[in-house]
Structure formats: C-alpha cells, structure tokens
Amino acid sequence: MEKVTRDNYKLVLGLEIHLHLRTKRKMFCRCSADIWEKEANSITCPVCLGLPGALPVPNEDAVKKTQLLGLALGCSLNQNSKFDRKHYFYPDLPKGYQISQYKEPLCLGGQVELDSGFIADIERIHLEEDVAKSFHEGDRTLLDFNKSGMPLVEIVTKPVFSNTVDAVDFCKKIQQTVRFLDIGDVDMEKGQMRLEANISLRTQEMEKKGELCNYKVEVKNINSFRFMEKAVLAEIDRQLQVFEKGEMPIQENRGYNETTGKTVPQRTKEDAKDYRYFPEPDIPPMVFSNGYINELKKELPELPHMIKKRLVQNYGIKISESIVLVDNFGMEIVNKFEEFIKKGLDSKKMASALINKKETHLWTFDKFKDYLQVPDELIDENALRDLIIKVMENNPKAVEDYKNGKESSIQFLFGQIMRETGGKVKPDYAIPLIKSLIQ
Ligand SMILES: [Zn+2]
Q1: Closest by Cα among 162, 180, 73 to 123
Q2: Which residues touch 314 (CB under 8 Å, ≥6 apart)?
Q3: Confidence category of residue 1, pLDDT binned at 50, 70, 90
C-alpha cells in the first residue's frame, strides 16, 4: 500500500463565514442592534426571545446590505427569495428553529480573486438570525438573549481551497469588502465575523480526476485568521494520522483548542434533511425586480480589487505594489498617491518610497517632490492628458492600429508626445496613460 505522507494527500477545504451586518434594528423585530457591552438580556422582545405567537418581520436594510455584499462578490441575486425554518434544539435556540434561508437564498454564485491569482468560487450567500449567547459557570449554563435575532450573513464557498494561505486570504478579502461597503464592522474579537472550515483530504489520483471525498470535518467557531491557519494545519495532521492507521476519518464537527493546538470532537454533523427545513409560514416570499437590482448595482463603490487593477493600469506600478497600497495602507494613502501623481510625481518612484519608507506617508507634496528630485518643468497629468488626446486626434491610424493589436503604435504616439513637449515626459508615466485613454 502507498505510504501515507503529506505529499500523497491533498487538502480539500471549503469555508463558511458568518458575519454581523451593521443595522439599527435586529433581523425580525424592532429591538436595537446596538447590543455590544450592554447588560445581559436587556435588549429583547417576544420575537427575539422566541416566544410562541410572536410575529417576525424582516429587516429590509439587512436584506439590502446582504444583496450589496453579494453584488460586490460577483454573485447573482435571486429575484425570488424566501426564509425557511431550520430546526434543531439547543439551549441558545429555545424556540427549536432558526429562521434562515435554504432553497432560495438571496445570492448565488460569485467569485473572489486572491493575491495568489487563484479564483475562489462562492456557492451562496444567505441571511439568517443569530442565536443567543451561552456562558458556562461550573455546572450551570447562563443565557444572554441580546445577540439572539441579530442579522447574520452566511457566505458558503465551494470546496475549492487547496492551501491555508488562499483560505486565509479569502477571509481577509471578505472582511475588507464588508468594511469598504460600510455595511458591518466585522470585528472578530466581538464575534462579528466567525469562520468555519470544512476539511477533508484526498489522494493525488482523486485530485486529478476531480473527485471529492465522502466525508468532511467541520471545524467550527474559529475567531481569528491566525487560528484559522493553525486549526486547518492541526486537522490535516490529525486526518493524516487516521489514514496512517488504515482508517477513514468520520464526518463530524470539531472545535479548535487554542491551548493544546489540536481539534476536538463536538456534536455530530447533521445532514440537511435532519434540520427538517420548511418555508417560514409567517414571512411572505420576497420578490425583487430587475429595476431594483439595477439600482442596487449603482450603489456599489469602486472595490479594492478594481482599485488595485486601476493603479497598475493607469500608473504602471507592479501588482504587488498596488496590493500593499490598497490592502496594507488603505484609501487615505491611495488617495494621496493618486493626487500627487496627478500633480506630476513619478508613480513608480512614489510607490516605492511609500512602501519602503513609512515616514513618507506623512509627507507633503513639496517634500516628496524634493525627495524624488522632480524637475520643475515636468508637465502635470491634466496637461499631459490634454496633449495625449490631441496627439490621438491627429494620429487616428496609429490609435486604430494599436486597438487592432499593433503594440509598436504606442511607441509612435509616445514619440509624438516627446516631440511636442521637448522630451519632458517619461515613458513609464506616459505610456500607461496613453493606453488607458485609448480604451
Ligand atoms: Zn427583539
């Protein structure tokens, strides 16, 4: 028999990410959603306590914010969507079911491009209510219902990840997107974003054939990106050991113990049929028109992945540099970068200075100009833009040739601009600009 080693077995990983939206009210009642650091059980009503006969009314703002997130992640929005009851009993869910979505979630599909270049496929995004919080004190369990009924989004990916770096990057991109859309704080320490990883191993042969395993282990309630990586690696080790004994891992839920660095069993995984889903009878199905969806699309801001691509295209910097500018430094620095480039600074030199010399983040334009030794007569971006447009109008054939794939036409157009300015324009600055203006 083939020896069991890390090399023979490949990771198959899917993610489930739960996150709280920032809304004024809870998901199905009028209670305030500002529950953080409030006295236990002080923000409740018959609906979020789950008392019999209480009528849930969906929070439209939460629905809209979930749809915005879906659009930002490339999902298609279901024009017909509804809520379902997901049945299980647990002390933090005394009404015996959670209002969730099963067959017709708000968003389907979607993709996220990661820094590695890998594109991660999303299965679905749905909206549900959070449950109460339980505290264990000796042999007693205490319950706080403030969190019960908070709007909770669940993002489910396909089992597409084959390494922890991509999986962690995906989670970070989700957090960044939520913050960019300004629809949630997703503070992991407050439990506003929680991660679960579905983990199995398959042989190289199965990977080649595209076959999945017939089991998966769900590692639940991971509350930091660092623990996510550790938990997955620990679970891979454990499953390898099971295979080494000639056995198969069983389908189950496990938790990650931060102290021992190991995963430990929790209650067994229910199949969908065990939840006995059925349509929530108290909430009518939702119908969304094309017009409504088109209006929502207009509300989307320019997203991080778009900004990164634009910085590369317009200013000729490296993709690795645009990732640092957008992901590590944030929009304040990105805006400063663009503002100073438009005033005439060299984009590559400025990006390099921002990345290698942190003190430059506080610098004024004049200080940057002195540091980068920009000659005073260099023309600024607006003037250069006007000039490029003029040169393009005077040379329609070169523009047409470039559009048809003749790369060298750019050099010709650049040569014309050099002639007009007496050589005051640099190619690494002007050529990306010419390309972006031709498109
Ligand atoms: Zn309530």
Answers
A1: 73
A2: 432, 433, 436
A3: very low
Centre of ligand 1 from the C-alpha of residue 80, in Å: 26
Name residue 265's beta-bridge partners: 254
Query: Alpha carbon of 299 to those of 78, 107, 145, 279: distances in Å?
Result: 18, 17, 34, 31
Amino acid at site 59: N
Q: State in Å: Cα 44 to ligand 1 middle.
A: 4
Q: Residue 35 Cα, ligand 1 centroid: separation in angstroms?
A: 11
The pTM for the full model equals 0.82
Tell how far the Cα of 133 is from the centroid of ligand 1, in angstroms: 15
Q: For the segment 249-304, what is each residue's pLDDT rounded down to a tens digit?
A: 999 899 998 889 999 998 654 555 688 899 999 999 999 999 999 999 999 999 99
242-258 pLDDT, tens digit per residue, is: 999 989 999 989 999 88
Largest CA distance in the chain: 84
**Among residues 86, 66, 182, which one has the least CA distance to residue 127?**
66
> Helix crossing, 396-403 with 381-394: angle to 10°?
100
DSSP characters for 284-350?
A: PPEE--HHHHHHHHHTPPPPHHHHHHHHHHHH---HHHHHIIIIII-HHHHHHHHHHHHTT--HHHH
> And the tokens for 247?
């056995």
